[in-house]
Amino acid sequence: MFEPDDAARYVASLKSVLRPAGTCYLMCFSDRQPGAWGPRRIREDELRAAFSDGWSVESVTADTFDVNRVAGWTRVHAWLAAIRRD
To answer: With a cut of 70, which residues of the chain have pLDDT below it?
Structure first.
């Protein structure tokens, strides 16, 4: 996800390419991730709010994924969301 000011543009761009009733699967850095390196962390309520108009958030699940840092692979906290276009 982008900075808060860019979230509406991001969501609108997804809506322009996803047919009605289509589902977007989104994974993003979670605010549960400690430390300060990496992209901005997203709160669950922030993710839900970004998709509150014209979308149905079917699920937001705590998950993890691996990233390759200079020092090697690191597992980070993420949100995995299933979001359906109304």
So the answer is: 1-2, 70-71
